[in-house]
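Sanity check. The docking grid for adenosine monophosphate depends on where the pocket ends up, so I'm generating a full predicted complex first rather than guessing from homology. Inputs follow.
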Amino acid sequence: MAASVIFLGAPGAGKGTQAQILRQEFGYHQISTGDLLRENIKRGTPTGKVAERFMKRGELVPDEVIVAMVRDALPADRAKPVIFDGFPRTIPQAQALDAMLKEQGHNLPRVVSFCIDLREAGERMLVRGREDDAAETIKRRFEVFEEHKREIETYYNNPSSGRFVEIDASQPVEAVTRQLLRALELVAP
Ligand code: AMP
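Predicted complex below; grid placement will be based on this.
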């Protein structure tokens, strides 16, 4: 059974695209907090109403809201490996995830960091053209990413854990998938 995996990386690094590939090809359950929030906004739920105010400005949605949403999204089949895409983004979220996984008897997740030049990621986002991808919001989202990047990477890049891998996310989709599959040991090196 494959281990669950956390995708870290800037907005526009291609985490969502790769998560979708792993879900379709390898049966992972995908939890993308950005997608879940956008669904909540569309459905007009209380979570969506709170989240919208923060997302419009490119700020992080409060940890309690995110953690409750992720808890609800965990698969009923506890043996199913999960891809966490865009979560955790803060230390309290990482701690909450550790506790949730432990509670459910999961092994430690793998952590894959998608490395990309921020200018290149910004260009990808402009091409993608999502509603919260307006130029000013993108700028703030990158600032927020930079503010939290070091602490979250330090949290996971622990030499004794051996579960942290960096991949070059600037490459074309297929090449990133190949790196990812090797990193997750889903194919031979
Ligand atoms: P994403 O699609 O992952 O880039 O997320 C879009 C927006 O949703 C972010 O700019 C945040 O406002 C919000 N968001 C997504 N995931 C999180 C998270 N783990 N913690 C806080 N806010 C989040």
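Relevant for the grid: Residues 64 and 93 are 8 Å apart (CA to CA).
Also worth noting: The longest helix spans residues 135-156.
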